[in-house]
Design a protein that fits this description.
This protein is an alpha+beta fold. The protein contains 14 helices and 27 strands. The mean pLDDT is about 95.
Length: about 500
């Protein structure tokens, strides 16, 4: 199975696309730019969703659901947001089809069914949500309003890639309203930290926390906080964003509240989201030329057990021993699959589960039963060892914790070794082309210089790291003064 996978060194993009399809995560659909997420891929997304949902609720947020369609006039109310998404919008203009009189068996748009007002298929939900909040917020007693929704959105991308960039994708979007600017900024930072904690503790992906430049900022936001990750090919991937919206949307939709003193004031807003592009990040951070490598905390199947037998009697004996192990593993909250299919040979099963990234594989044969042992194989290191059956469940549970930590540390070592400081434009270009990764460099703070560097190198400022320190220097392109370094990279 995996032997047919293009290698990363041969063609990283082709390797990624093949892996997503062959590992049964997703496939292209009959709708241009849209994907079908297959059961195994969706099981991973469900685990992501469950953990994030838990974290949101622990921080006081509640789930709601808002319409897919946004009236055009409502969408236009906050100008910067509307302008920012205008080129990606899908629009509904009619509400009915009819038989085409000139083409039997075909349908046409009914010209008499034109909508009085066109509807935008949501690319993001600020407009519809803030128009709703106007009716929900009257007093300071109604604040803070902490709402999240799990939904799909449509952004009419011309160049698509499974999970990373599709015309329709799944995500969550939080939208909150606060009485003060301080509270809203704190909320924006808090949710960025929630995303960072999730990425590092569950996805085993180290991230850089930072803020976006004005050019890269979310349309309609006053500040965008972000987490940036680094993929194995040296390209960056924006893994999550959290936006301080100021009072922009509150003013656009007239969302006011009465203060304790009886004054009318506009609320302060935030929005924040992550999407199924996290699936792409998961694949590209850990996987290898044999297939997926999944961190145990997000693997739908953490342990797969494969019996090795020649006769039905041997299979029955192995199954009896395996059932005891499965029971012990489930008591330790380990998800396990017993692959006792008789239609496939053990070698096929090994390759299949290797391709699908199951963290631990256990093989059991007649000799193992005689010796009271199990063969344990790690997917991340491709190593095997024979362990006694006594205490095996606890050993497996501990090993999963170890694998999770090892995957994070491996990714962290790669990331840290691919943050390179440069002080000249020649050095900047050399590192981008030869090494890749994050390039830490001085920038003069102007949008013109940022755009020029992007035009010349295809590298963008991924973020201004929150932990960056003031350091006098000169912009790598213009030589103008700079007070701190920012992180550049080529990105997805």
């Amino acid at each position: 199975m995996s032997k047919n996978l293009t290698t990363r060194s041969e063609d990283y993009s082709k390797w990624y696309n093949e892996l997503v399809v062959k590992a049964d995560l997703a496939e292209n659909s009959g709708v241009r730019g849209c994907m079908v997420i297959k059961p195994y891929g969706y099981a991973i997304w469900e685990k992501m969703q469950a953990e994030l949902d838990r974290m949101f609720k622990e921080t006081g947020h509640q789930n709601a659901y808002f319409p897919l369609f946004v009236p055009k006039s409502m969408f236009e109310a906050e100008e910067k947001n509307a302008e920012g998404f205008a080129k990606e919008c899908a629009i509904v203009t009619h509400y009915r089809l009819k038989n085409d009189p000139d083409k039997p068996g075909k349908l046409m748009v009914d010209p008499n069914a034109k909508l009085e007002e066109e509807l935008i298929v949501r690319p993001t939900s600020e407009a519809i949500i803030w128009s709703t909040y106007k009716g929900w917020v009257q007093s300071y007693r109604d604040l803070p309003l902490l709402i999240n929704q799990w939904a799909n959105v449509v952004r009419w991308e011309m160049r698509t890639r499974l999970f990373l960039r599709t015309a329709e994708f799944l995500w969550q979007e939080g939208h909150t309203a606060h009485a003060t600017k301080i509270e809203a900024v704190e909320e924006s930072e808090k949710m960025m930290n929630v995303y960072a904690e999730f990425a590092e503790n569950f996805m085993a992906i180290p991230v850089v926390k930072g803020i976006k430049t004005e050019t890269e900022r979310f349309a309609g936001a006053e500040e965008t906080f972000c987490i940036e990750a680094l993929m194995q090919d040296g390209k960056a991937l924006q893994a999550g964003t959290s936006h301080f919206l100021g009072q922009n949307f509150a003013k656009a939709f007239d969302v006011k509240f009465a203060t304790a003193e009886g004054k009318q004031e506009y609320v302060w807003g935030t929005s924040w989201g992550v999407s199924t592009r996290l699936m792409g990040a998961l694949v590209m951070t850990h996987s290898d030329d044999k297939g997926l490598v999944l961190p145990p905390n997000l693997a739908p199947i953490q342990v797969v057990i494969v019996p090795i037998h020649k006769t039905d009697e041997q299979l029955a004996e192995i199954t009896a021993a395996v059932n005891v192990l499965i029971s012990d593993l489930k008591k330790l909250h380990v998800s396990v699959k017993y692959d006792d299919r008789t239609t496939q040979k053990p070698g096929f099963k090994f390759a299949e589960w290797e391709l699908k990234g199951v963290p631990i594989r256990i093989a059991v044969g007649p000799k193992d039963l005689e010796n009271g042992t199990f063969e344990v194989a790690r997917r991340d290191t491709l190593t095997k060892e024979v362990k006694p059956k006594d205490g095996i469940a606890t050993y497996i549970s501990d090993l999963l914790v170890q694998i999770q930590a090892d995957l994070f540390n491996k990714a962290l070592n790669y990331r840290d070794s691919h943050i390179t400081e440069v002080n000249s434009f020649e050095e900047f270009k050399s590192v981008l082309n030869d090494k890749g990764g994050f390039v830490s460099a001085h920038w003069d703070g102007t949008a013109a210089t940022e755009e020029k560097i992007k035009d010349l190198t295809k590298a963008t400022i991924r973020c201004i790291p929150l932990d960056s320190v003031e350091e006098e220097g000169s912009c790598i392109l213009t030589g103008n003064s700079s007070s701190r370094r920012v992180l550049f990279a080529k990105a997805y």
